[in-house]
Amino acid sequence: MTIQGIRFGMIAATLAGVGLLTVAASPPRERDASLQPVVVELFTAQGCAGCPDANRTLEAVADEPGVIALTYGVGYWDYLGWSDTFAKPEFTARQQAYRQALKLRNVSTPQVVIDGRRHLSGARPPELQAAIDAEAAARLWPPEIEFRETGDRVGVGSGRPPAGGAEVMAVIYQPGLQTVEVRQGDNRGQAVRHINVVREVKRLGDWTGRPALFLLPADSASEDNVVVLVQAKSDRRILSAARRAEPARD
Predict the structure, then answer these.
(1) DSSP letter string over 62-92?
(2) Which of 3-17, 27-41, 175-189 is the most confident on average?
(3) Is 201 helix (H, G, I), strand (E, B) or coil?
(4) At what angle do helices 125-136 and 51-61 cross, to 10 degrees?
(5) Does residue 75 contact residue 89 with C-beta atoms inside 8 Å?
(6) Cβ–Cβ < 8 Å for 188, 82
(7) What dihedral angle (degrees, nearest 10) is formed by the CA atoms of 198, 55, 146, 132?
(8) pLDDT averaged over the chain?
């Protein structure tokens, strides 16, 4: 359905001086998890009839090595009778920015954006897996990202910035599954599953190609994970991405 309009050794030394149909989950593809991860962003809505299947498709790839899967709730289907419990206006704005960068006439729900470079309307497993594999094979010297042991800062290494510049973003999300009982609208009576639900997106600053340190958001709860993205400002492609390890649990 559519609606009109809507990614240290050398770094550490340098920085020291700076004081994403119902399917059964298939076995993860063999991929080197140490390589630059592929970021899969799903824009979904609890009130959208086609979205629960897309949510489950994202869930099926979320544990693949080298994949960072993120779920963003959008609220422009709320008029059907159910207000999405995870939606925020800034998530719709992020989807709109992708629409403009990818030169799309409309946004679609569900929509998957892979590394900010390509999109899928809906989330059919074969097409999604093919897009993930293609992006994983297209890595070209991304700037390194390193989380400091103190947990409050992240370093971004050197590299060639894109035309128009780049910015560093922190995506704060709750890892794992959440289920919402939808009581109204097209999905009334369904228990809609979500994986890695995004709570907040914060801009940390500009990346100019030189090594730099950035402060992480101080208000992210201990149960949350943080993904740091280096993202082009103009075409919104993700140049580099890294995920802060989940906190240890007893």
Answers:
(1) TTSTTEEEEEEE--TTGGGS---SSB-HHHH
(2) 175-189
(3) strand
(4) 40
(5) yes
(6) yes
(7) -150
(8) 85
